[in-house]
Amino acid sequence: MKPPLLRMTAIQKRFPGVHALRGVDLELAAGEVLALVGENGAGKSTLIKILGGAHRPDSGSVEIDGVPLLQATPNSALRAGVGVIYQELNLAPAMRVCDNIFLGHEETRLGWISAASEKRRATEIFESIGVRVDPSAICRQLSVAEQQVVEIAKALSLRARIIVMDEPTAALSPREVERLFAVIRELKKSGIGIIYVSHRLDEVVEISDRVTVLRDGETVGGGPTEDIPRDRMIELMVGRRLEEEFPSREISIGEPLLEVEQLSRGSRVRDVSFQVRAGEIVALTGLVGSGRTETARLLFGADQRDAGRIRIDGKAVDIRRPRHAIAAGICLLTEDRKSQGLVLGHSVLHNFGLPNLSRFARWGVIDRKRESSAFGSYVEQLGIRVTSQRQRAETLSGGNQQKVVLAKWLERNAKVIIFDEPTRGIDVGAKLEIYNLLNKLVAQGKAILMISSELPEVLGMADRILVMHEGRMTGEITDVAATSQQQIMDLAVR
Fold first, then answer.
1. 385 in the same domain as 290
2. Do the Cβ atoms of 58 and 234 come closer than 8 Å?
3. Residues 42 and 171 reside in one and the same domain
4. For the chain, how many structural domains are there in total?
5. Whether residues 164 and 36 fall in one domain
6. Does some domain include residue 338?
7. Within this chain, do residues 23 and 163 fall inside the same structural domain, yes or no?
8. For residue 86, which of 142, 168, 161, 159 has the smallest C-alpha distance?
9. CA 20 to 30 Å from 167, out of 143, 201, 352, 445?
10. Do 234 and 246 fall into the same domain?
């Protein structure tokens, strides 16, 4: 009997204080898409790093076509045919596409790099997967979706037979997701096995042939995707049945807290007007590049507006810097919490205290006891999972990082809270916790502007929906319950 393309057996891995993998088994056939799902901390990243040679297992075996992969390193994994495309893309942005594809294994002639040969080979690879990318383009000029295709081409240039995709659609628009899925289907036809790691279960159902579910470092279930209903998949991931994915709430909407009139900045944001009321969640959606994040940055003073007026609680405010927004009662939880929302190398307590130093300082000296006590109350209130207040922010899961960012802004007593992609990269169980927090905040009379690319999230959480396209507001939906994803997309492509 022919062995599977990939077999990982009884994989164990420990880190100081953490038993990351507890005897995990995984198999992948040629021409198959295997979805690897689980909550943050379930062991998915550790498992794919072992496959890619970045970590060595404490015990267990990895076989490719029945041949053991011994003492794997990233280079030996590549030589064995394993290509891993991480969520943080690994390209040299200032270099050309073809240079990135062949970096480290350049095509040479008489000791000189053959640029013409590399360009021709790159074109052949792109054609084989049915996409068009200019091999001479500079990588930083490409869209995220195009950069992902370059990463795939890198793996194919090394004759990869196994390609791992870690959260490949996190920063893609729905159309770009469709294109990526078309590429994946072409890869399947050529016999390449794909491990698809994602929190987006709708995509898992659409693109995968089989599913393997991890929880707390163990394999807890799996099988053909068609045999595992979405609700059952969630139940396996979190270890309990979730009665509802989007929690309901009693709606009590008050007067406008945020009013925006004709906000503009060049062609990115053009004459945008809207309002968000106390006790209301307003979703701002649209395709990537529609101007959603740019609007949030203008409201927070991170960018300078060309025109427009902003009122908070009926009073005009002149926001030119983030400190003006903070003083006015606006806070922003950024799309990229790791680089813009947190100082990862600092403790969670220091991250909490940074925007609140004036509240905890007397005569220029920080009252550490008072700071710690304040943060402790949010740890309890928000359910932040930390081993101690000195724990570094980089060691937290995505959901807990988001809660630390929220805690520091709640201490400022913000009235208007802007969430930019609040659940990006967060597992389904942690998503529910974030949704419950949103409901608690609006129950306290806060106004929430939620920017999201996930249309089920938009429809499940918003009281009203605003849609943008090319910097303009193209529609407002007030009857959310009667709205479909297609109706939102129609407004998003106007």
1. no
2. no
3. yes
4. 3
5. yes
6. no
7. yes
8. 168
9. 352
10. no
Write down which residue in 409, 438, 465 finishes a domain.
409
Considering the domain architecture, whether residues 246 and 222 belong to the same structural domain is answered as: no
Q: Are 150 and 98 in contact, with CB atoms under 8 Å apart?
A: no
Q: Does 250 lie in the same domain as 234?
A: no
Q: Tokens 């795939």 label which residue?
A: 152
Does the residue 335 lie in any domain? no
Residue with tokens 């267990």: 60
Amino acid at residue number 38? G
- The answer to whether residue 334 sits within a structural domain is no
Residue 32's SS3 state is: coil
Domain boundary among 238, 268, 296: 238
Residue 338, C-beta contacts closer than 8 angstroms, at least 6 positions apart: 344, 394, 401
Show pLDDT as tens, one digit a residue, over the chain (494 residues).
Answer: 778 999 999 999 988 767 889 999 999 999 999 999 987 778 898 999 999 998 999 999 999 999 888 777 888 888 888 988 887 778 888 999 999 998 877 777 766 777 888 888 899 888 888 888 899 999 988 877 788 888 888 888 888 899 998 888 876 777 778 888 988 999 999 999 999 998 888 899 999 999 999 988 999 999 999 999 988 888 888 776 666 778 888 878 999 999 999 999 999 999 999 999 999 999 999 877 789 989 999 999 999 999 999 999 999 999 999 989 988 999 898 877 777 778 888 999 999 888 878 888 787 788 888 889 989 988 887 788 888 899 998 888 777 888 888 888 888 878 999 998 888 777 777 788 889 889 989 999 999 999 998 888 899 999 999 999 989 999 999 999 999 888 998 888 76
Token reading at 287: 């395709």
Q: What is the token pair recorded at 187? A: 């890869």
Judgement on whether residues 232 and 247 belong to the same structural domain of the protein: no
Residue for token pair 């890198």: 154
Question: At residue 64, what is the residue type?
Answer: I
Rounded to whole angstroms, the Cα distance separating 318 from 310 reads 7
Please list, in sequence order, all residues whose beta carbon lies within 8 angstroms of the beta carbon of residue 478, skipping any fewer than 6 positions away. 464
Quote the CA–CA distance of 287 and 492 in Å, as a whole number: 6
Cβ contact 164:48 at 8 Å:
yes
Domain assignment of residue 180, given as a range: 6-238
